[in-house]
Amino acid sequence: MSDTATRAMTWLIQLSDKDENLREQIITQLTSAVSNASTTAVAAPTLAGTINGGDILVHARCTDEDAGMLRVSVDDVLAQAPVDSVDSVEYGATPPVGAAHLSGTRQTPPPTIYRALLLRVDDRATPEQIARFERDLLLMPVHVTSIATWQLSHVTDAGGPTEWTHVWEQTFTDLDGLRGQYMAHPIHWGVVDRWFDPEWPENIVVDRVAHSFCALG
């Protein structure tokens, strides 16, 4: 994560035309669009196993001064593309003062996978419930050693049909680290899942979630 970036943006883009060559052309255009205004940028096809995560994942970090140019650049590309739907979120590139515990880095081999989970917490959830939920999510990197970097963020601006409230993002050493160790770990299904499962009394995550991931580099 860049020292100069202050704002992060993520787009999950669903295409109406599934032609792979066309998708690659759009990704090339998006890569050019975000690279000019970003300190860090990813634009890539999503991988098998993505849920509500689109065909293309774009993630960028930039300064506040460049945020407007970044939005316009991406919008210009999408206006010319066969887009079915877009989910987008904006949030701080780093946690706010006093909340450094919301992100972290582990010494690992260079990560090869970027993953973002977009979710919406019920408006009726209390601050205490939300704090407990966030603490449980942040237990994941303690136990899942394939996570290289992580950040839990509150969404400041959401686009698309869902009013997203949180972004939970990580990079992983490899795909098995996400599909295997992360998804199958007891901390996931024994502690974290109850916040997402409507059959549990702790459930506060409502509507659909968007689980999207792509290769880095």
Architecture blueprint of SSEs:
Blueprint: E1 7-15, H1 20-35, E2 40-45, E3 56-62, H2 64-79, E4 83-92, E5 103-105, E6 113-121, H3 127-137, H4 140-143, E7 147-154, E8 157-159, E9 166-172, H5 175-184, H6 186-192, E10 205-215
Antiparallel strand pairs: 1-3, 1-4, 2-3, 4-8, 5-7, 6-9, 6-10, 7-9
Helix pairs in contact: 1-2
Question: If you had to describe this structure to a student in words, what would you say it looks like?
Answer:
It is globular, with a radius of gyration of 17 Å. The chain folds into 2 domains: 86 residues, Alpha-Beta Plaits (2-Layer Sandwich), CATH 3.30.70; 116 residues, Alpha-Beta Plaits (2-Layer Sandwich). The chain starts with 6 loop residues before the first strand and ends with a strand. With 217 residues, the protein is of the alpha+beta class. Helix content is 29%, strand content 34%. Pfam families: Dabb (PF07876). InterPro entries: Dabb, Dimeric_a/b-barrel.
Poorly predicted spans: none
At CATH level 2, the architecture of the largest domain is 2-Layer Sandwich
Instruction: List the helices and strands in order.
Output: EHEEHEEEHHEEEHHE
CATH class of the largest domain: Alpha Beta
- Report the β-strand fraction as a percent range: 25-35%
What do we call the CATH topology of the largest domain? Alpha-Beta Plaits
Strand order of the largest sheet: 2-3-1-4-8
How many strands in all? 10
> Number of helical segments?
6
**What class, by secondary structure content?**
alpha+beta
Instruction: Kindly provide the radius of gyration, computed on alpha-carbon positions and rounded to a whole number of angstroms.
Output: 17 Å
Fraction of residues in helix: 25-40%
